[in-house]
Amino acid sequence: MNTMPIAIPAIETPWRLPSRGRVGMFSLIAAEAAIFTIFVVAYLFYLGKSLSGPTPGQLLHVPLFNTICLLSSSLTIHLALSELRVGKGATFKFWWLLTFALGAVFLIGTGREWYHLIYAEGLAISTNLFGTTYYSLVGLHAFHVTAGLVGLSVVMILALLGRVRQEHAQHVDVLSLYWHFVDVVWVVVFTVVYIVGK
Amino acid sequence: MSTNSIPIPGPIRLPRETRRAWLEALHEWVITVDHKKLGLMYIGYALVFLVIGGIEATIMRIQLAVPHATFVSPQVFNRMFTMHGTTMIFFVAMPILFGFGNYLVPLMIGARDMAFPRLNAWSFWMSAFGGLLLYFSFLGGDGLYGAGSAPDVGWWAYAPLTSPAFSKGHSTDYWTIALLVSGFGSIGTAINILATVLSMRCPGMSLGKMPLLAWMNLVMSGMVLLAISPLTAAQMMLMIDRYLGGHFFDTQAGGSATIWMHFFWIFGHPEVYVLVIPCFGFMSEIVPVFSRKAMFGYPVMVAATVAIGFVSMSVWAHHMFTMGMASYSNAFFALTTMAVGVPTGIKIFNWLGTMWGGKIRYATPMLFCLAFLFQFLIAGLTGVIQAAAPLDWQLSLSYFVVAHFHYVIVGGILFALFGAFYYWYPKMTGRMLDETLGKWHFWLFLIGFHLTFDFMHIPGLLGMPRRIYTYEPGLGWESWNLICSIGVVFQIGAVLCFVFNLVRSYFKGRLAGDDPWDAWTLEWAIPSPPPAYNFAAIPEVRSRRPLWDLKHPEDPDWKYDQ
Q1: Gap from B442 CA to chain A (nearest CA, Å)
Q2: Which of these, B108, B161, B368, B398, is most buried using a 10 Å CB contact count?
Q3: Domain-located, residue B126
Q4: Does A20 touch chain B (CB under 8 A)?
């Protein structure tokens, strides 16, 4: 290959671009938000359109404990991350484990709620429009919580093996963005399903 | 001052001789995460589907050439238009544009690969798998009921036609899952392109100095995220309906067929722009190089693209005027649809302004771009008149609409794509495509295109509905349909020229060298085909035309544009 040396004046400001991990995760979040929007619109559109019972008002109870668990997990993952950024491995692990536990409690809570609805109340996805939209929307969110928990547990296992160090904070940060997103979606789903829709 | 080494066009090198076992080469392609190989795989895979989709179109045109034809049964005709539409949009246009984006964006922004190479490979294989699933329906669509074959619900698959009662067997399931799977692939690619463009640009390349093709791919990717996702959500709902007994689109249980239409077109209309915006990118790279002038109105071009991105997200219900919406909804969507024509018109003027006073070289890439310019304009104009709801009530679901969107997709998108092939083939393979064959390809395709799609407007105006498998004689439609079908012969001839040219030039084409077109963007600074690492040294750029600066040190661009 021929090359020609040429002189280029040095660029004055250092060349900095946003981290690709964060850009990628924000893009994924945009796509996921669009998917959730469609499900939320469908839920709201079909409110009260079921031709037969039961109705949300008869069956749904506000899952307050669950909600508190999930929302506080956003705080704990934030604390975990700030500990990791300053290199405090032990407290990072503590907060990370707590985040995982809170997420797991949320998922178990959803499971118990569904068990009750299916076996005690007889509401299935095919029962009526309420069943279809409720299980789809809450289920879609629960699926995202599950995916988040898989991610959290991978980091957790690596952390317990001592593989997560300060320099990995920016990778863990990308995962925490996803987890915050799952929490924000829950705020929307909670409002739509348990407050507006009830 | 720092001293950098930027490669300049040097003596022509022969493509490297390789004597590896065939299986070894195949293995290398299967496991690759190189953006160039994945790009070529996207393009190759899309070309295969282009031929398949073309065959389906030919079958339809043979059936419609004369009244009361019995070339295929009504059932087969339904499968053909469903498969043709689905194939051409999801397994030709999308992957071929992703292929070019994949190949070109990192080269143009001076990067060594995409931001997430493994995600890139994953996306490609998801798309490829989606295409296989769609076509497996010919074998597996029967299902346990022995009913159905390939999907036959139309490419927009309106409810309740997709409900288990009306769509037995698995044909619709294959359609759904094929789009779901390839949709995940598309979202993956869009994330990748966004992250690449925003985070991988070489030093000095601010957003305002980025090649327009990279800008267009950036906007396109943002639109994919917001447009493909609703389709993905709608497909999930359809699967819930079909497999779990849900009622989203089940009117018997209070569900709504209308909401499927909304969800589909929230995807469906932005999709048109997802396809055409990268083609605007091709135009914006090819037209300046062949007019020997810098792009006219670069910032306006970027602004117009972003404006299209926003406005086109709120025009979808113009596909649904005949459904009976409230008058204010009709007015809103009519106005937004007309408004989206404004930034599109601005672009047309930008390209015209680029050519104005330029020293135009009428090589094959430029010929296709010139045809694009006129045809896309006409396609846009027939679009704007249909934005008027009352006229649309008359024309909706007629062959006028079919002619209109084929004018956009064939006359616009496909022509720009052919131009892109002739322009970048030398970079991808190291050899030029043959100009004589290229001219044959261009003129045959131009004649065929205009025979088929100009005359297709007329039976539409005379009331011929779309999706009919045959028609009565004496309605005044016969001669127009015959002309449309004759045009297909020319198009087939043109595509044969093209495929022959692609294959022949790969072995016997004139060697291209690094920069056969005397172009100005970074991909022409490196050898053809580019080495796996793209750039030996990451370049630094100071203007929108880094190679111009290099070739004209006495009069560099960076003295002028900021």
Answers
A1: 35
A2: B368
A3: yes
A4: yes
* pLDDT tens column, B276-291: 999 999 999 999 999 9
CATH of the domain at B451: 1.20.210.10
Domain assignment of residue A57, yes or no: no
Query: B87: which DSSP letter?
Result: I
Q: What's the one-letter identity of residue A157? A: I
**Confidence band, pLDDT 50/70/90 cuts, at residue B3:** very low
| B164 prior amide bond cis, ω within 30 | no
Tokens (6 digits) for B157: 């698959």
At residue B465, the 3 state secondary structure works out as strand
Residue labelled with tokens 């288990």: B164
Instruction: With beta carbons less than 8 A apart as the criterion, state whether B1 and B542 touch.
Output: no
From CA B76, how far away is CA B59, in angstroms rounded?
A: 10
* Percent of all residues in chain B with a pLDDT value above 70, rounded to a whole number: 95
pLDDT value at A1 more than 50:
no
Number of domains composing chain A: 1
Name the residue range of residue A97's domain. 64-196
A93 and A160 Cβ atoms separated by less than 8 Å: yes
Total domains in chain B come to 1
Cis omega (within 30 of 0) for bond into B529:
yes
A9 touching B, CB under 8 A? yes
Q: What interface predicted TM-score (ipTM) does this complex get?
A: 0.92
The CA-CA-CA angle for residues B359, B343, A37, to 5°, reads: 135
Q: What is the predicted pLDDT for the residue at A12?
A: 61
In our burial notation (b when 16+ CB lie closer than 10 A, e otherwise), range B411-441 reads bbbbbbbbbbbbbbbbbbbbbbbbeebbebb
pTM here is 0.93
**A142 inside domain:** yes
| Burial (Cβ within 10 Å: 0-12, 13-18, ≥19) of residue B479 | exposed
Q: Is B195 on the interface with A (CB under 8 A)?
A: yes
Going by C-alpha positions, the residue among B281, B293, B421, B407 that lies closest to residue B347 is B281
Domain span holding position B183: 36-557
Q: Is the pLDDT of residue B435 over 80?
A: yes
